[in-house]
Automatic annotation (TrEMBL):
Residue ranges of domain EXPERA in the record: 64-201
Gene Ontology molecular function, alphabetical: C-8 sterol isomerase activity; cholestenol delta-isomerase activity; steroid Delta-isomerase activity
One Gene Ontology term from the biological process aspect of the record: sterol biosynthetic process
Name of the featured protein: EXPERA domain-containing protein
């Protein structure tokens, strides 16, 4: 009818649950090998550049510390949910590919927006501070590392639990059922954010425990020395007093 506005046609997309609203969706223009290859290349270049700078500031940095440093550099990232669905830059296409395993990244899901906002403004900078503390051999390294690892583990727990609970009670799944998208993307790509933080937190707790044990041993040794030294001084004073009396 004249005067009525035509409703915009729904844009077809491959994301689950079927029919989920993804405004302004535009399909990726780059093939998957190009997207993944570009990501690996950029991450490799970033880690190589930052590792070179780290070794310049601290040449004594060991291989293990350098690997941990690179891990925290990788953790430092920024996400843009408002434009990712329609954008065609490399990172947007990468996230649209990953979103096949979790469409919440494209639907401005309140949980995802809240968690990723905390990540951008808090956990991202804290990851950078962890990396800096490793290079600077700062005593704050292990406390910061424990906080950051707890944040990763808690975030992953919330990420999985909210999705799985919704699937259990409503039957709505945000992941495509194919092996690649569920087991490789959804499970496999998040697995390092469980294993690595758990290992690093254990390492930090063990290091702090060892240092505190050594500190307690030093305190006990100092108390023993002070007790022996005090007894010797008392004996000298007594001898001097005896000589004066004679």
């Amino acid at each position: 009818m004249f005067g009525q506005m035509a409703e915009p046609a729904e844009v077809a997309h491959p994301y689950y649950p079927l029919g989920v609203d993804i405004p302004h969706y535009a399909a990726n223009t780059l093939p998957l090998p190009v997207i993944l290859g570009s990501l690996v290349g950029m991450l490799g270049s970033a880690m190589l550049a930052t590792s070179t700078l780290a070794l310049r500031f601290n040449p004594s940095l060991g291989k293990g510390q350098l690997v941990i440093f690179c891990w925290f550099i990788v953790c430092y990232f920024v996400l843009n949910h408002a434009t990712v669905a329609s954008s065609q830059n490399l990172f947007a296409q990468l996230w649209k590919e990953y979103a096949l395993s979790d469409s919440r990244y494209l639907t401005s899901d309140p949980f995802m927006l809240s968690v990723e906002s905390i990540t951008v403004f808090l956990w991202g900078p804290l990851s950078f501070l962890c990396a800096v503390s490793i290079v600077a051999a700062s005593p704050l390294r292990h406390p910061l590392q424990i906080i950051m690892c707890m944040a990763h583990l808690y975030g992953v727990a919330l990420y999985y639990s909210t999705s799985l609970v919704e699937t259990h009670f409503t039957g709505r799944s945000h992941s495509r059922p194919e092996f690649l998208y569920f087991w490789v993307y959804y499970v496999g790509f998040n697995f390092p954010w469980v294993v690595v933080p758990a290992f690093l937190m254990y390492d930090s707790l063990k290091t702090i425990s060892r240092k505190l044990r050594s500190f307690e041993q030093v305190k006990i040794g100092l108390k023993g020395y002070e007790a022996r030294n005090g007894s010797a001084k008392t004996a000298v004073v007594s001898k001097k007093a005896e000589k004066k009396e004679q």
